[in-house]
Design a protein that fits this description.
Length: about 290
């Protein structure tokens, strides 16, 4: 072994002994296989093909073949997620992966039903849309909701981290950030979409329409005695039939009453009653 190889080995040993490796990267123990990002992207692509047959796969495979492939992929990745993040699995183990995969498969019909309401809402809310097919293929809102609807059901099944990976795949691709823990009703739509943020504990009713740049975020955090932020409800509740225009920021555990309209560029940190109209007033100046 030459000096160069010895130096490389010493550097590798030093990297592995770094204290940060013990605290931050401790899950990377021998035998643990992490969820695979390309495989999870493939998983979402299969959901797309099953829910919207003919739009993404040109009917190259029948739905039965796609379902079998999706089930196998789910079992594989759920097992990796439960093993790699065992400290977050709440008692679930790799042995539960087949049952959890089947439970997700049984929820596909409801995922499909909700996504079809989202397509219809987007079509109804945008005069530029020429067909439902155009909405399915072109609109980032629908791509974000496919990821979110699938991830939300996986989260409900108690599967760690994988739901967050799936929604972040959409976030990185199209700029819409929806936490899988948010609760979103039917007929949901986002026009344009870039820069929209929907936090983990948001509750959104039916027939809600957002424009680009809307933030439904947390105003502040509550900390435990060790200084760690507590995961408690901290994001807005948006009731039915609400429209929120571009670049508005709504923060904290507040409620936007049903049938309200929030204008563009509004900063809102207090609840408003049903049928409210909130706009940004232009400050008057004296000359």
């Amino acid at each position: 072994m030459n000096n160069s190889e010895e130096n490389i080995l010493l550097k590798v040993e030093r990297l592995l002994q770094n204290s940060l490796s013990e605290t931050i990267c401790s899950p990377t123990k021998e035998g643990r296989i992490s969820p695979n990002l390309p495989r999870l992207k493939q998983l979402v692509d299969l959901v797309k093909e099953i829910v919207f047959p003919g739009y993404y796969n040109e009917l190259k495979n029948d739905v039965h073949v796609l379902l079998v492939e999706l089930n196998q992929l789910l079992k594989e990745q759920i097992a990796h997620g439960l093993h790699f993040f065992s400290e977050q699995a709440k008692g679930k183990t790799e042995a539960d992966a087949p049952q959890l995969a089947l439970a997700f498969m049984e929820r596909l019909f409801e995922i499909k039903r909700l996504l079809y309401t989202d397509v219809k809402a987007m079509y109804n809310n945008d005069p530029a849309a020429r067909s439902h097919g155009e909405v399915i293929l072109c609109y980032p809102s629908i791509q974000a909701m496919i990821h979110y609807r699938a991830a939300h059901e996986l989260l409900r099944l108690g599967i760690p981290v994988i739901p967050r990976i799936i929604t972040e795949l959409a976030h990185s691709a199209i700029g819409i950030d929806i936490h899988p823990g948010a609760q979103i009703g039917e007929f949901f739509s986002i026009d344009h979409g870039t820069g929209v943020v929907i936090g983990e504990t948001c509750i959104i009713g039916n027939n809600v329409h957002l424009y680009q740049g809307v933030t439904l975020g947390a105003k502040s955090f509550t900390f435990d005695e060790r200084g760690n932020p507590l995961n408690i409800p901290r994001h807005p509740v948006i009731e039915n039939n609400v429209v929120i225009y571009s670049n508005s920021t709504i923060l904290g555990r507040i409620t936007i009453g049903h049938d309200s309209v929030i204008g563009g560029n509004v900063w809102l940190t207090h609840s408003v009653p049903p049928h409210s109209r909130i706009i940004q007033y232009r400050a008057s100046s004296n000359h």
